[in-house]
Amino acid sequence: MTSQLTYTQQISQVEQQAGAAIRVSDIVKRYGDLTVLDRVSLDINAGEFITLLGASGSGKSTLLNIISGFNKPDAGLLEVDGEDFTRRPPHKRGLGMVFQHYALFPHMSVWDNVAFGLRRQRRPKAEVQQRVGDVLRMIQMDHLADRKPDQLSGGQQQRVALARGIVFEPRVLLMDEPLGALDKLLREEMQLEIRRIHQELGITFIFVTHDQHEALTMSDRIALLKHGKIVQLGTPKELYDSPNSRYVAEFIGESNLFEGRVDADGFVTDGGARFGRPSGDGSLLMVRPEHVRVAASTEGLTNAAPVRVFNCVYLGSDMVVYGRTESGQVVVARTPISHGVSAPLEGDRAVMTWATEDSRLVPDDAEQRQA
Amino acid sequence: MAKILTRAFLGLLAVLIGVYLLMPVLVIVPMSWSESPYLAFPPEGFTMQWYEKFFNDAAWMSSLGHSVSIGLLSALLSVVLGTMGALALVRGKFPFRGVVMGVLLAPMIVPFVIVGLAVYITFLGLGLTQTTLGFVLVHTALGVPYVLINVVASLSSVDRRLEMAAMNLGATPLGTFFRITLPLIFPGMLAGALFAFITSWDEVVVAIFLSGPDITTLPVKMWSGIRVQIDPTIAAISTISLIVILAAFAGQGVFKLFASASERRRRKRIVTMQEELA
Predict the structure, then answer these.
(1) Of A96, A146, A168, the CB nearest to B271
(2) What keywords sit in the KW lines (chain B) (predicted)?
């Protein structure tokens, strides 16, 4: 997404769009003394794949439930294509949803599960047959249409839940940790499948997960939530390359963070080491492990952190080297394995180095709060 | 060796307990076809005359009719009220739910004599003694706890997300209940209704207070009959009463069979539908 339209521009384009634009304004949700959502605002573009990412208790599921209508906000406004949805009951919203653990109706066949929404909308019988048949073929489940959910594998149930959510052509599909119960291989397969369906349908997808890898793989944009607030909103690349706080840097991917300050000549760590000054602002220098190289000596290097290697992990494609500087700072390097280069051994002395343009300054969390 | 002895002993114990529990049935049922004019065990000969006597006696027939109609009505009312109560207790959000549950279950624990006396005094003033309505009201109160326990149990195992999914797909709250919740808790409701019916069918103590010349239930009539004359008619009635209860349980089994049969038909229908499409 290079050029994002504004919300109002989007609304004027609604006629041509399959997906709906959603505007969340100053939503507040409290449970007793606990504030789960604290004045959250978010503009979701029509046809966008947006992920609400966060640890448990960050409020991501609550926000999704406010959009689906199962939760009523204490304050704030929810608009879908300019219409006020804040108080509308769930069954009158017409938004598709894939639930955690799928929530397939156990007493109905796959066919009846998928047809449920169309039948509630009183679509003609022929249309119901046509659409259910089509969508089951699309997810390659047409041969299992007469099975009950408990006769299906986890991956098959997942696909049926997806089919049930999209068969009535909603403008928005909400997904609440839909891949949580699948094993790793199947999860990666489904990520691509969901991505493909999103591109095919062109509707708005709102995806909730606590898995940053999933968020990076699938999303157009990610909203990272923490304690009921969006800490950063942006494309996966923006969140990964230029996190706006320590929390984001640590949540998305792995990172080496050096505490220190910028002076006239560069960046000085609290431990006294001196590195080149990268772009960005803040008192943390971040460099991702895949940008760190292991060198033999500090000679001729702008950025050099001498370490003693204390762990070395072989991952097949990569090698991860863990070193500790004299001041106790852990530095991690992740390098592709190339034959002929011997791996450092545990206890070896080595130098961790990186190019200044691969590092970045990140505000520490306290600074961000002041800003 | 010791193992075999233990097994033999446990087997014997199990058989003895089984015989002990079935004793009333094993004694009463054979007595009902005895030719002896008195209740005698073991039975002498074979005759159906006591059954004939029962079915030809207008008084017995009237009490049988009352028992059936009171039993069915109170089971029906119990299952409707009990299910509504269970829904409120499991899905609702209000204070003192534990207390409400306790009060609703109280009829199971409060001695029937106390219930009977209280009901008698109250109903006398209201003109509800010796009426079907009076019986149904009391027996419903006694039946509701069984429905409540069964439905609360099955409702607790129904994932709330299923109801949310149905609403998300456009089902109204009422539609969601009838299409999703009800089918899933139906076995619990049926079991509750069965217990409510049996409670009413078998209930003597409160029924004695409410009975009179105009209206008696079968167990009350048996109780008063036994004091006047003891002949095998009473054994025949007991057997019939037992058959009614067994039939109720069998009915539940038949329902399960029927449900799976209609399920098979529906699957066939889906297969043909797909073939048409292909």
Answers:
(1) A146
(2) Cell inner membrane, Cell membrane, Membrane, Transmembrane, Transmembrane helix, Transport
Q: Where are the domains of chain A?
A: 7-241, 254-370
**What's CA B164's distance to the chain center, in Å?**
33
d(CA A123, CA A127): 7
Tens-place pLDDT, residues B95-149 = 998 899 999 999 888 999 999 999 999 999 999 889 999 999 999 999 999 999 9
- Kindly identify which residue of chain B lies nearest to residue A170, measuring between CA atoms: B169
Backbone angles phi and psi of A265, in degrees to 5 = -100, -5
The nearest alpha carbon in chain B to A168 belongs to B169
- In CATH terms, the superfamily for domain A7-241 is P-loop containing nucleotide triphosphate hydrolases (3.40.50.300)
Mean pLDDT taken over chain B = 89
Question: Order of strands, edge to edge, in the sheet holding A359-362?
Answer: A274-275, A266-269, A256-263, A284-287, A359-362
**Token couple for B50:** 């006591």
Cβ atoms of A182 and A190 within 8 Å: the answer is yes
Local structure of A151: helix, strand or coil: helix
Tell which CATH classification among 3.30.565.10, 2.40.50.140, 2.60.40.150, 3.20.20.210 matches the domain A254-370.
Answer: 2.40.50.140
Average pLDDT of the segment spanning A130-152 = 90
pTM equals 0.80
CA distance A177 to chain B (A): 13
Is the pLDDT at A1 greater than 60? The verdict is no
pLDDT in tens, B166-211: 999 999 999 999 999 999 999 999 999 999 999 999 899 999 999 9
Cβ atoms < 10 Å from Cβ of B17: 10
Peptide bond preceding B42 in cis form (omega within 30 of 0): yes
Residues A294 and A303 sit within 8 Å (Cβ to Cβ): no
What is the C-alpha to C-alpha distance for residues A344 and A333, in angstroms, rounded to an integer? Answer: 12
The rounded distance, in Å, linking the Cα atoms of A250 and A296 is 28
**b vs e for A2-38, b when ≥16 Cβ sit within 10 Å of the residue's Cβ?**
eeeeebeebbeeeeebebbbbbbeebebeeeeebbbe
